[in-house]
Amino acid sequence: MIADPYGTAALREAVLASWQASPSRFREDANAEDDLARGGYRDRLLVELAQNASDAAGSDGRLVLRLDGQVLLAGNSGTPLTAEGVRALASLRASAKRSGRTVGRFGVGFAAVAAVADEVVVASHAGAVRFSRADTLIAVRALPQLAAEVAARDLHVPLLRLPSPVEAAPPVGADTEVRVVLRPDAVAAVRASLEAFDPTLLLVLPGLVSVDLAGRLLEVVPDGDDTLLDGVRWRIARDEGDLDPVLLADRPVEERAQSRWSVTWAVPVDADGIPQALPAQSVRAPTPTDDPLSFPALLAASLPLGPDRRRVAPGPLRDAVLGSAARLLVELLPRLADDPYRLSFVPGPLAAGEVDAALGSTVLKLLREAPVLAGGRRAADAVVLDGAGADLVDALTDVLPGLLPADWSTDRWAAPLRALGVRPLSLAELTEILQGLDRPPAWWRALYAALPPDRDALGALPVPLADGRLAPGPTGLLLADAIVDLTPLGLRVVHPDAAHPLLLRLGAVEADPRSLLEDPRVRAAVEAAVDEEDPGPIVEAVVALVGAADLRADELPWLAALVLPDDVGEWRPAGELLLPVGPLARVVDSQAGFGVVRAGFAHDDVLGALGVLRGFSTGRVEDGVEDIDGLDDWLASLPPGEEPGVVVRDLDLVRDDAWPEALDILEQFGLLALPYVRWWLAGAPVLDGRRPRSLRLPGTDPLLEGLYDEAPGDPVRARLLGARTSLAEVLLDEPEDVLERLADAGRSIGRGQLRAVHSALVAGDVDVDPPSFVRAVLDGAVQVVPAGDAVVVDRPDLLARVTPYAVVPVPLAFSQVLADVLDLALASEVVPAAVLPEDGCVPWGQVWPGATGWLCRHEVLAADDAGGNPVDVDWVRIGDVDHVRGLEGTARALAWRLGAWERRHELFASLRGDLGDTDGDLDPV
User: Which of 125, 853, 855, 909 gives the lowest tally of CB atoms within 10 Å of its CB?
Assistant: First the structure.
């Protein structure tokens, strides 16, 4: 007979009696076990076995789990199996554990085996008991009262209500061994559970120090302040205390015996104590519940559970324990590395569940007052700068007390910091704080290097200037190399030690020496220097910039206003100074008012760019040049739309005897061919004291001979300077000059040349003031006579009657026009009309076929001249009648009547009258 050391027979008799007396009790027990197996304790087999092992061990407990075929073996050290324990195992609603320090030994959690097995053996060295559905079915079939209930349940009976003694080998290496005979359909699931066994159970079950999973040993190893488990370092905080009985008032009676509460937090860390990522967790009480936890840590606490043991029960006890958990977590955080990952413990706006929300609310309140931020700061003492990098934080450490390090300032941690109430600081707000800050320029450069290029936010960023001031923003500031002290020029130049590319992106301007010179403030300083008591600093700065800019002369003409020291120690505008050995100094008049720049003051090229005169200075009309001799007259002479271009100064200051060298200087500097220069020189006495436009080039238009003297020297240069080449050119440019020269009695002009010149005057359609004197033919010679003593012959028959007037030679076709241009009388206007007899007149047609009008021949023919004196003539025309004497008069009258005046000699080549060739003056040119 098998010994029954745990009194199982009495247990069975009692249970069967109760079922027989009340079949509904059988149904209740069966349903209760089924609910636990399928509900609260489903998938909890290994967890409950580990929990029981922890309670049995008390401390330093060890658990061995292995699968032997279809049997799961769980051997643990600690308190062996007792009769009380057997009674607890067989009871669905009672537990042998009433101590507040246990977590579940032989409690209702043992019902988890019912989910996977129909037979379980619990063996200890004092004996063993078996739980078997088969044994229970045999027992209940013997009770007729239960037949209907058993049938209704399809023969499914409770597993854990009727323990019986069994002969079994005592456990090896363990004090107690649970042997779970798995149903075939549960083996794979249990095997998977063994492989996926959660090592962290050892952290929350204080009675266990190791679990052996058939060769895989999970062992808790203390390491200083940490615990090593399965290759992971954990930082753990534990606390416990006495429970106020008031908190247990709403709990089941057996739970009211609990007098202690406990909380454990475990955070995975690296060797430096920096928290590591952790998969989503659930609240443990102490084994996992279905209440999710959003904190990146393990939480095990003596929280009250609901009947299904899967959810934390609400109430005062829960709230009290969660309050202790919140406090312990906040106390744990400073023990972690000083790393922003601490902020992952700040609750977010969305809790994972009801328990998580209750815990998070308390944690957040405590964190706001706790020294959990970098360097032990509290939220109220901390400042976070948007997007601050490490360099920026380093630069601002002594400016912003409480500024969090860069790795705490990233977007990742913005929401937790806001939740804690840490004061956020924008870049724009930072610029306000920095206003007036006294720091060396190099500090500002380091700051700029660390700032992002946010133009909107940093528009008021202070910038140290070279003059020691602090500008309230980069816009318009100049970044320039440190050539010289530019302070006297009023320029807002960034201190070279503070210069950084960021300033350019924020609105500063990169300035080279040329752009600095073009700054309006430099021009203003140049113009104001003349009124300075000591213009030296301004002059020094400008001279240095000009030298560095490599300017050419006249590029910035306003620089000529800068005062420079002359050779007698006075300050004078550069434009009034000459280079000591410059070519211009050799040709200008000593009374021109120029000074000489102090020798050695600056390089000649720099002085030239400043406006000191080496040669002739130039300027552009569109730049507003001044003091240009004859500029208005020259501009008026330009054709519409023609650009004036470059002009040259000081031509009027050249000595009369220095023009040969002055012309060489102009040519050397490429100025001689400029339109303005040619125009000005053409009217100045620059060629042997004479104006080029008053001279002619030799070998050009013969009509100019006598009127203009030949230009001396190089004809190419003379042509360039405006020496005349044709009469047509002169008439187009200066027709009055031709008339003046015709009226110059000192000039010799041939009779034929004179007629050609007069013809050109008419052909040129000139508009001149009538001259006082004209050149005409009188008594057979070309002479200069008063204009009132000359006439223009408009009819050839009047030529012999113009006495005492001189005749201005011009082709008859041009007579009227020339008379109008020169305001001269026509012969027909000064010669009186003749009255002659018309005896013996014949039609011209009888003399010359095709001719019209009448011809009257006279042996003697006379008529009054312009002076009223009768003179003998050979032809007088009155109306349509020609009165002639001799063949000469006849030939001339016929030629005129035929409109072929030039053919008169052809008709009567042998006939010549007393007038000789005088009437040839009336021929066309």
Answer: 909
